[in-house]
Amino acid sequence: MKRLNLVFMGTPHFALPTLKLLHLSAHNVEAVVTQPDRRSGRGRNLCPSPVKEWSIKQGLEIFQPLKARDPLFLAWLKEKHPDLVITAAFGQILTADLLRVPAIGCINLHASYLPAYRGAAPIHRAVMEGAPYSGVSIIEMTKELDAGDIFLQERVDISPFDTAGTLHDRLAERGADLLLKTVNALAEGKAEKRVQDHRLATYARPLSREEEKLDWNLDAMELYNRIRGLNPWPGAYTVFKGKRVKVWKAALPDMNEDTAGSADPGTILSAGDDSLTVATGKGSLILLDLQPAGKKAMDAASFCCGYRVDPGECLGGDA
Question: Is residue 68 domain-resident?
């Protein structure tokens, strides 16, 4: 098998399992490209990406272009003479000039079973929409978003108890294995690819701030899936007594029982013990873990006791 010269492009935790596996492989990770440091936390200090932090420890060369279309970045990449450029959640779209640089080409790890959920938020959207499965796909990069030919892909089931976080971790590990298999196949000249069925394509649009706020007029299942899909980032929230409260975990009651009755959406039906039950547009939802603004997350019993929650009060409104 030919030893390939690789340039890896990635930024968040999702990309780390792939980079680690490539670094341990028979191939050479010549350099790593990641997004510029971002300000984070209360102090608004500049923080490196997870990929940069790990790459520094390994002594890998790092390049952080402000824009992938920067001519200086293109010149730098050409000097590396890569056989293959690999991207995994890099966060920028590559130009046609960049795609032409590597001898073999550019491949991408995408966190969905393409052609479903092309775009920026495939993991969140799959959970938020209650999809029965997601997956990972290794594709040839093209100018069109996530539309390239597929080398390998694997379907991954989504359980009713998965969050975006738990699904993220499984997909990151599965994707790393699948990507290394693709790289090895390319090195051996045995890689095969197939065209996506573009008629079946769906789009995973970026998350919006409006979606973080729970709309109690939605039905209980929609709200349950939204809470799972926004956990652990950015988090779903509601408003109680004029203050924001994050909702990290919820459960559905017996769907054969009309536990909400004629109560208005957002009305607290019961409070105490180990849960907090709220009426929705259809059915009710049991809130289990909550986090008031500026406080640590707590179970529903602690929240009800500490914030004097009574049946008949309402969630929602403006903070």
Answer: yes
